[in-house]
Amino acid sequence: MLTLDQVYWKTPDGEEIVKGVSLEIAPGRLTVVTGPNGGGKTSIAKLVAGLASPTGGRILLDGEEITGLDITERAKRGIAYAFQQPVRFKGVTVRDLLEIAAGDALSEEDMCSVLGKVGLCARDYVDRPVDASLSGGESKRIEIATVLARRDARFLVFDEPEAGIDLWSFSNLIDVFRSLKEERRRALFVISHQERILEIADEIVVIADGQVRLSGSREEILPQLLTGEKQGLCPIHQGM
Amino acid sequence: MNITTEQLLKAVADYQGKFQGAYNIRENGECAARQSTPHIHIESKQDKPGLDIHIDADAQQETVYIPACVTHGNVDDLVYNDFYVAAGADVTIIAGCGVHTDGEGEARHNGIHRFFLDKGARVLYKEKHVGTGKGIGLKRIDPVTEITLGEGASLEMETIQLGGVDTTDRRTEATLGPRARLTIHESLMTDGVETAQTDFVVSMDGEDSAVDLISRSVAKGESRQEYRSRIKGNCRCTGHSECDAILVDRGTVNAAPELYAGDIDAELIHEAAIGKIAGEQIVKLRTLGLTEEQAEEKIIEGFLRGK
Fold first, then answer.
1. Tell me: the pLDDT tens digits for A4-36?
2. Residue among B278, B288, B304 whose CB faces A100 most closely
3. Is A128 on the interface with B (CB under 8 A)?
4. Cross-strand pairs, B141
5. Is the Cβ pair B283, A72 closer than 8 Å?
6. B254-275 b/e with 16+ CB inside 10 Å = b?
């Protein structure tokens, strides 16, 4: 169980972005965080993964306070984070990243399994550098694969995983989220505006202006969101 | 062959207790072992230290090893090795160099390698350099490579300085005939107060010749690097050079790439980037469980290995 208890975060120049957010995310559940752009969703994801430090409140993982732990320590405790904007390297290959993520050497079969989940053929990609020679969609899929390769991960954060990927890969991704849910041992925390992702959520949290505006089960929240869209709460995308 | 030589050979020439095929092992300025094959003949020069290596046209997918090691101080090893590669031959040449000193005396190797490739010959040339030992004597490697490519010949050069070399002055000159292809990948690592100077001059004199020169370097500690390249397109040709460097600590890199187009159909491109490791790269690897130091190491490893 990951718990955010009255978490606040200000930028270095004092702008308050996250304003007293409290959440509980249980294993085996898919929680989708949605809401208008600039509302604080990515900031919350970064606070969870340790990329930013709260200016107030506490973050707990299975009862252990992890608020003061750095990125590496949180990763070692099983928090995995897929960036919204994939990072590019020079010379570091897809194989390097996946093996770092897995914590060990991966067989060709393992590579195929992980990359296949994001619609990529291992044979074509493992030795490619993760650099500008990859398209935006390819980079994004490899970014997602680095999280799927994490054997020790029990809390998976995906920041707008649908951004930049094609329809076929998006459908694959929905299947991956479904199967991860069925494993019932990992918690999924997905920032998304996509209706198809919202439709498989167990819980939906709407963040706006740095605060939780709506929170509850999919059945409870999704109908409200469709109404809320008119109020500017959630720009749901139905394109995929 | 002493044990230090064996250790250096493992580092620079993939030595696993023996070499297959043709080889000459140079140890402290002397020949420690040699073997020719039916298609690759290795002979000592008569007028100066070094070798003449003649590679026949029948040499296909063969490998020749010409490593050199200096295993103690007060050795200044100068060697001239000439490679004559016949038309149509296709070989790999591995010519690593290791210098080691545990004392106060300087250990230096200065290898002057000349390559003459006839029409359509193909060579993959690999050289790795390393310095080892705890002595205060300078560990120095000053390689000179001169390449002459005949019509349609191609040479791919992988030159890697693994580390531990206090000072190096690396010079490479090449002349390309018609449709000749030259590819160079340089990887250079310096640390502490080491210095490295690297200098490439490539003249494309034959129509439709091409060069691709990629240099990747990392300057750590207070080390200093100087990079110079000059690509001369004297006819219809294509040239590309890329010089990327990562700075760590207080390392410095001075890069001065130069392009000369002496013909309206010469197409020359240069790319360069020098800077520290991007913070987001370290953050990404930390989210995968690495410490900051481990992340930096992986990024540098990939950067130097990358093509």
1. 999 999 999 999 999 999 999 999 999 999 999
2. B288
3. no
4. B109, B168
5. no
6. ebebebeeeeeebebebebebe
Position A162 in a domain: yes
B202 shares its domain with B294: no
Q: What is the C-alpha to C-alpha distance for residues A233 and A228, in angstroms, rounded to an integer?
A: 5
Range of the domain at B102: 3-277
**Any B CB within 8 A of A89 CB:** yes
Q: Is residue A204 part of a domain?
A: yes
Q: What is the average pLDDT across A204-226? A: 92
Is A236 part of any domain? no
Q: How many domains does chain A have?
A: 1
Give how many domains chain B has, as a whole number. 2
CB B119 within 8 A of CB B2: no
According to the model, what pLDDT value does residue A184 have? Answer: 81
**pLDDT tens digit sequence for B147-202:** 999 999 999 999 999 889 999 999 999 999 999 999 999 999 999 999 999 999 99
Give the ipTM of the model, two decimals please.
Answer: 0.93
B237 interfaces chain A, CB cutoff of 8 Å = no
**Same-domain pairing of B254 and B299:** no
